[in-house]
Amino acid sequence: MLRMLGTIEYDSAYTLSGHVEERNATCRRFAQTERFNVTRGCLPWAIQEKDLRSAVDLSRAYRRFQQETPAGQTRRFGRGCYSLKVGFERYYASDRLHAFVRALEALILPETGKTEKQFVARCTLFAGPQTAQSPIQEALREAYRMRCDVEHVHEWDRSLQTYPAAEREHIAYWRTRQMETLACAAYTKVLLDPRLAECFYDESKLAEFWQKPDEEIRLAFGDVCDISKMYIVRQYDDYGRAAASDWPSNHASSLSRRISVGHS
Q: Are the C-beta atoms of residues 25 and 18 closer than 8 Å to each other?
């Protein structure tokens, strides 16, 4: 769940599980965690205590979803969560993009034959402000078409041929990072907002939700994300992250403040 809040980089990590009884902790299981990869061009992120607490809240919310959803109801939201996790684990960006777009499709419940149109229209309602609608819709449309090309085993940049050849790979990574950020923000919002979760945990209620006026849907999600503010990256460091020269102007200072607060 921590991975939904930001990019995690590590060589190896382990999980401990057990129980506490009368203030005595007992470890029952020690295992290596799944390997989560990063999307090329990502920005470094410093984890704080509040992020760990948010991850715990997300984990508890997901367990409630699993326990309280009646067996007879569809598990569309659960399949979407699984797709998101698959995206984190995949190494190749094309496979990551495919999984992140699929996770978003689970949320928007597109009608047959209208998937691309509704993917763009519905995701636009929580991908950023109306003032940035044009670049947001362009990103969503290109990402969806890339996803379709990956699904049918075409080259993942086949739909980006209008861009100069030297730019296509940078744009493809950019779109992948945007879909990753959007999917993470949307699932985090749904899991942590009981009123919104009620609409998404049942497919019939989900269908009703997407019939609401656009402004009502925007209000329900709030300002969870703005993919129009995410920068294209053209320089990468040895670890695949964005080179410092391609960081947003305020990222270094905000990262320093975050580390400072985390160690205070």
A: yes
Coil, strand or helix at 213: coil
Is 32 a domain residue?
Answer: no
Query: Quick check: is 8 in a domain?
Result: no
In a domain, 239, yes or no: yes
pTM listed for this prediction: 0.89
Question: Tens digit of pLDDT for each residue in 19-59?
Answer: 788 788 888 777 777 778 899 999 988 888 999 999 999 99
15 in a domain, yes or no? no
- With cut-offs at 50, 70 and 90, classify the pLDDT of residue 264: very low
Distance separating alpha carbons of residues 48 and 52, to the nearest angstrom = 7
Range of the domain at 138: 38-262
* CA–CA separation, 38 and 32 (whole Å): 18
Give yes or no for a contact between 225 and 128, defined as CB atoms under 8 angstroms apart: yes
The domain tally of the chain equals 1
Our CA angle for 250, 220, 131, nearest 5°, is 50
**Average pLDDT for residues 119-136, to the nearest whole number?**
97
**C-alpha–C-alpha distance, residues 37 and 7, integer Å:** 9
Between CA 247 and CA 209, with CA 174 as vertex, the angle to 5 degrees is 115
Phi and psi at residue 68, to the nearest 5°: -100, -15
Instruction: Give the whole-number percent of the chain exceeding pLDDT 70.
Output: 95
